[in-house]
Design goal:
heterodimer, A: mainly alpha, 2 helices, rod-shaped, B: mainly alpha, two-stranded antiparallel ribbon, 71% helix, proton-transporting ATPase activity, rotational mechanism (chain A)
Chain lengths: 168, 235
């Protein structure tokens, strides 16, 4: 028994069911798994590329950071050295000035001392000379001069003489 | 040597008897080949493809990109159906190579796919544009509304007949050719010469055209038309 060569019959309905079944089976066993595999691989590859570019970005950033920090450190070191030099210079200047001040003060003091000693010596000498003069005059004159009355006179004489002699 | 419709293999005794013809049984053979083949090929998918997986992935990738370029990115979900249609049609058409009657040499099979195309157009255009948008689309210049309505139905009908006609014509011509060459053998070598020696060679060459080239062309055309008409109705 054969069907007519050209007729629409039950076969159409059966073929609809067949096509539906084939669609479901091929979707399940062919298209979905293969597509999922392709998509997951694609996602993985693009993720790898993304990761790589992110890592590169980070590396670049770190490198820039390091370069910046290194140049900063260099600058800082330079600054420190400069500061230290400046401070040392200042300190040495200070010390020198101090020493000079001290030395000149000591000199002044010494000079003052010398002057005072000299004056003292001169005075002592003057006193001795006046005593000596009075003694000599007493001896020469032979009579007791009124020490009290004439001392001033002698003193004036000695002062004038002393001044003259010291001025030479 | 006579050209008939498909043989009835058996009848399902419901609804007054549903005849299961050669067409349906051969469709099952094609379905079994496709389903078992894809199960075997996708049994052990690897992240790093190897051997047959490369080919399968290439085919599926090509299908998806083809559907995307033809229908648009938003309609790529049609790809599994288009792929099913193409593979079903192509392998059905090629059954002629193995001396089996192609399921697509039966108007019921091609009409079934045309009917699906018709339903896809109606369902998805209404889903996308709404009933009013769909009606508006049909009456765009109001003067051509009747033509649009006719083409809604004539398109699937022509699709069904085009596919059926090509495959059935191949079947008829191949059958006629075998008959003619057998007759020629009998004429040349006498009626008792049982081996149709002249039927060797020429039918094989023609088979390359009818069973391979036409098989591919018709499968491609029906898939392409389904994609184009469905996406046109949706945009």
């Amino acid at each position: 028994m054969t069907m007519p060569f050209l007729s629409i019959d039950w076969t159409l309905v059966v073929q609809l069911i067949n096509t539906g079944i084939l669609f479901l089976l091929l979707s399940k066993f062919l298209f979905k798994p293969v597509k999922a595999m392709i998509d997951s691989r694609e996602a993985e590859v693009s993720k790898m590329y993304e990761d790589a570019s992110a890592a590169k970005e980070q590396a670049d950033r770190l490198q820039a950071e390091y370069a910046a920090s290194i140049s900063g450190a260099k600058e800082e070191a330079n600054q420190i050295v400069k500061d230290a030099q400046k401070r040392a210079q200042m300190r040495s200047d200070e010390i020198l000035t101090d020493a000079q001040t001290k030395a000149s003060a000591m000199m002044t003091k010494a000079e003052e001392e010398i002057a005072r000693e000299k004056k003292k010596a001169v005075n002592e000498i003057k006193d001795e000379i006046s005593d000596l003069a009075v003694m000599i005059a007493t001896k020469v004159v032979g009579k007791d001069l009124n020490t009290q009355d004439h001392e001033q006179l002698i003193q004036e004489f000695i002062d004038g003489a002393g001044d003259l002699s010291w001025k030479e | 040597m006579n050209i008939t419709g498909p043989k009835v293999i058996f009848t399902i005794p419901v609804l007054g008897g549903i005849p299961i013809s050669e067409t349906v049984v051969n469709s099952w053979i094609v379905m079994a080949i496709l389903v078992i083949g894809s199960m075997l090929l996708t049994r052990n998918l690897q992240k790093v493809p190897k051997g047959a997986q490369v080919l399968v992935e290439k085919v599926v990738e090509t299908l998806y990109s083809f559907v995307e370029s033809t229908m648009g990115k938003d309609k790529v979900f049609f790809a599994p159906y288009i792929g099913t249609l193409f593979l079903f049609s192509f392998f059905s058409n090629m059954l002629g190579l193995f001396g089996l009657r192609a399921p697509t040499a039966d108007i019921n099979t091609t009409a079934c796919w045309a009917f699906i195309e018709f339903m896809l157009v109606q369902i998805f255009s209404i889903k996308r544009k709404g009933v009013i948008g769909r009606i508006k689309g049909l009456c765009d210049p109001p003067i051509v509304t009747p033509l649009n309505l006719i083409s809604e139905f004539s398109t699937p009908v022509s699709m069904a007949f085009r596919h059926f006609g090509n495959i059935a014509a191949g079947l008829i011509i191949t059958t006629l050719l075998y008959g003619a060459l057998t007759g020629l053998t009998h004429m040349v070598f006498g009626a008792n010469f049982q081996i149709p020696i002249l039927a060797i060679g020429l039918p094989a060459v023609l088979s390359v055209y009818f069973d391979l080239f036409t098989a591919f062309m018709q499968a491609f055309i029906i898939s392409m038309l389904t994609m184009v008409f469905t996406s046109m109705a949706m945009d």
